[in-house]
């Protein structure tokens, strides 16, 4: 066991636990994207960034990959941490504005603008599909190809893989495969419609309630243009 402190709470964390696992055990919310329970932690998206250390000797680390250690001091919601997460989310949304998962996170975290030119790509390179295929489906039909701005995910030699079982696991777990909840007609890259709960329900626009904010009708943010007139 290692005695650590998270947001002022002291806890004896079992050896082998990560900061994220310990925080969740305490009920502390840390946003994640590339982390899914049951898959190996990767730390690629960095949305789970937290601040460790004290005084001037602090640094930002990914909670999903950082192991607990004796005397560790962690803060999960400092100004530095929140600003870092928002910046990371801006970059991710600029990469793939159509991801509903990213748009929901932006509303949840209070992101008001995206200051980067949108690329409108269909992948954020979180690696979830690769890990799902290898670790849960035991297929290894997907992998990363090239580096830098040429990085992409593909099958070996860009050909149909004989290892692929057409299970759909890669699409099921992909945060970029689901279209964003557009409401009426979003004018900017950032949808932002899930921020307010004062509008009529999104069920007036969509057949199904598909937002993160609660039970059907609790949110009520997607409104057809001129619906209130």
Automatic annotation (TrEMBL):
<protein>
    <recommendedName>
        <fullName>(2Fe-2S)-binding protein</fullName>
    </recommendedName>
</protein>
<dbReference type="InterPro" id="IPR017900">
    <property type="entry name" value="4Fe4S_Fe_S_CS"/>
</dbReference>
<dbReference type="GO" id="GO:0008137">
    <property type="term" value="F:NADH dehydrogenase (ubiquinone) activity"/>
</dbReference>
<dbReference type="GO" id="GO:0016020">
    <property type="term" value="C:membrane"/>
</dbReference>
<dbReference type="GO" id="GO:0046872">
    <property type="term" value="F:metal ion binding"/>
</dbReference>
<dbReference type="InterPro" id="IPR001041">
    <property type="entry name" value="2Fe-2S_ferredoxin-type"/>
</dbReference>
<dbReference type="InterPro" id="IPR036010">
    <property type="entry name" value="2Fe-2S_ferredoxin-like_sf"/>
</dbReference>
<dbReference type="Pfam" id="PF13510">
    <property type="entry name" value="Fer2_4"/>
</dbReference>
<feature type="domain" description="4Fe-4S ferredoxin-type">
    <location>
        <begin position="155"/>
        <end position="184"/>
    </location>
</feature>
<dbReference type="GO" id="GO:0042773">
    <property type="term" value="P:ATP synthesis coupled electron transport"/>
</dbReference>
<keyword id="KW-0408">Iron</keyword>
<keyword id="KW-0479">Metal-binding</keyword>
<dbReference type="InterPro" id="IPR000283">
    <property type="entry name" value="NADH_UbQ_OxRdtase_75kDa_su_CS"/>
</dbReference>
<keyword id="KW-0411">Iron-sulfur</keyword>
<dbReference type="GO" id="GO:0051536">
    <property type="term" value="F:iron-sulfur cluster binding"/>
</dbReference>
<dbReference type="InterPro" id="IPR017896">
    <property type="entry name" value="4Fe4S_Fe-S-bd"/>
</dbReference>
<feature type="domain" description="4Fe-4S ferredoxin-type">
    <location>
        <begin position="112"/>
        <end position="143"/>
    </location>
</feature>
<feature type="domain" description="2Fe-2S ferredoxin-type">
    <location>
        <begin position="2"/>
        <end position="80"/>
    </location>
</feature>
């Amino acid at each position: 066991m290692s005695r650590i402190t998270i947001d002022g709470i002291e806890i004896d964390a079992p050896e082998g636990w990560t900061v994220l696992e310990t925080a969740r055990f305490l009920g502390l919310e840390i946003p994640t994207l590339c982390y899914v329970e049951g898959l190996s932690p990767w730390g690629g998206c960095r949305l789970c960034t937290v601040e460790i250390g004290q005084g001037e000797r602090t640094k930002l680390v990914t909670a999903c990959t950082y192991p607990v250690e004796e005397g560790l001091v962690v803060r999960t919601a400092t100004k530095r941490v929140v600003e870092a997460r928002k910046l990371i989310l801006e970059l991710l949304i600029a990469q793939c504005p159509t991801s509903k998962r990213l748009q929901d996170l932006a509303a949840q975290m209070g992101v008001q603008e995206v200051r980067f030119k949108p690329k409108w790509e269909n992948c954020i390179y979180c690696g979830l599909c690769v890990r799902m295929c290898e670790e849960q489906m035991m297929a290894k039909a997907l992998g990363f190809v090239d580096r830098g701005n040429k990085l992409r995910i593909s099958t070996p030699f860009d050909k149909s893989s004989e290892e692929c079982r057409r299970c759909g696991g890669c699409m099921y777990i992909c945060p970029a495969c689901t279209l964003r909840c557009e409401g009426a007609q979003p004018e900017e890259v950032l949808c932002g419609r899930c921020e307010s709960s004062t509008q009529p329900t999104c069920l007036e626009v969509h057949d199904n309630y598909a937002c993160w904010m609660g039970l059907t009708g609790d949110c009520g943010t997607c409104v057809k243009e001129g619906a209130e007139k």
